[in-house]
């Protein structure tokens, strides 16, 4: 059972491996004792470990750069029309989207609010004018602004689209991250926007972090990469989430609407 499958059924496993259901039950019992799965009625679920460890910003910038670039290009299709407003969450994939915004013919046609120092600095270097950095305490590991000052400012704002990053995404736990203060900012971005676009590379699907900041029902669009498991994306579509599979350079993104 992989992380993204989350749950397995005794009958299905018996059919798949051409063994008896009793054999599967014995095997699952062994895995349960070893802490690898949790036995439930009719099957087993993945042994959840709600992570708290975070990679440094430099390490995350080196992780899956091709996928993040493709996701950013696909996510750019959801930027609002001229005169619109966006929330840009802190993160390496949203940073790639900020670079694309800076390269637009008229980058000043958007009003941008972010809690990310790298994003705002990158936009400033390209002389993008309609950018607001939230004030507050800076978390060194992510270079994200957090805290009560940022939340009070953000409470007064509304945006057409929130582009939100996440450390993890599961069907049951939704969007999650390691730090409660960053989660509070992300949650407010979601609450105070008309559309929520989640930028999530495939390595984050099926993982869980300690603090949930949004449920699947809060999400309008998930943009991921071509390595995302199809059955997992189908579960998102079944919950009325629009799924966009970003393709590598030179290929058109695979936009797939929900089944609603």
Automatic annotation (TrEMBL):
- Report the InterPro entries cross-referenced here: Carb_Metab_HTH_regulators, DeoR-like_C, DeoR_HTH, NagB/RpiA_transferase-like, WH_DNA-bd_sf
- Domain HTH deoR-type: where? 1-46
Gene name of the record: glpR
Q: Which PROSITE patterns match?
A: HTH_DEOR_2
SMART domains to which the protein is assigned, alphabetical: DeoRC, HTH_DEOR
UniProt keyword Nucleotide-binding present: no
Pfam families membership: DeoRC, HTH_DeoR
What this chain does, per the entry, is described as: Repressor of the lactose catabolism operon. Galactose-6-phosphate is the inducer.
Q: What is this protein called?
A: Lactose phosphotransferase system repressor
This protein's species is: Corynebacterium massiliense DSM 45435
- Which keywords does the record carry? Repressor, Transcription, Transcription regulation
């Amino acid at each position: 059972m992989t992380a993204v499958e989350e749950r397995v059924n005794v009958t299905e496993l018996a059919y798949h491996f051409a063994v008896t259901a009793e054999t599967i039950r014995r095997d699952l019992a062994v895995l349960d004792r070893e802490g690898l799965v949790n036995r439930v009625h009719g099957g087993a679920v993945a042994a959840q470990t709600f992570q708290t460890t975070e990679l440094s910003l430099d390490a995350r910038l080196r992780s899956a750069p091709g996928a993040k670039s493709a996701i950013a290009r696909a996510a750019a299709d959801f930027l609002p029309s001229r005169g619109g407003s966006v929330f840009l969450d802190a993160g390496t994939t949203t940073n790639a989207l900020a670079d694309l915004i800076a390269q637009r013919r008229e980058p000043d046609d958007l009003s941008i609010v972010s809690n990310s120092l790298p994003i705002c600095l990158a936009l400033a270097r390209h002389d993008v004018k309609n950018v607001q950095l939230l004030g507050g305490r800076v978390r060194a590991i992510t270079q994200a602004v957090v805290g009560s000052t940022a939340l009070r400012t953000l409470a007064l704002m509304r945006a057409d689209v929130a582009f939100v990053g996440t450390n993890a995404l599961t069907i049951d736990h939704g969007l999650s991250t390691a730090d409660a203060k960053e989660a509070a900012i992300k949650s407010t971005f979601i609450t105070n926007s008309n559309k929520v676009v989640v930028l999530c590379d495939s390595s984050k699907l099926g993982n869980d972090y300690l603090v949930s900041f949004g449920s699947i029902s809060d999400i309008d669009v998930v943009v991921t990469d071509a390595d995302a498991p199809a059955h997992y994306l189908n579960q998102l579509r079944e919950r009325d989430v629009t799924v966009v599979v970003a393709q590598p350079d030179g290929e058109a993104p695979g936009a797939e609407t929900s089944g609603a």
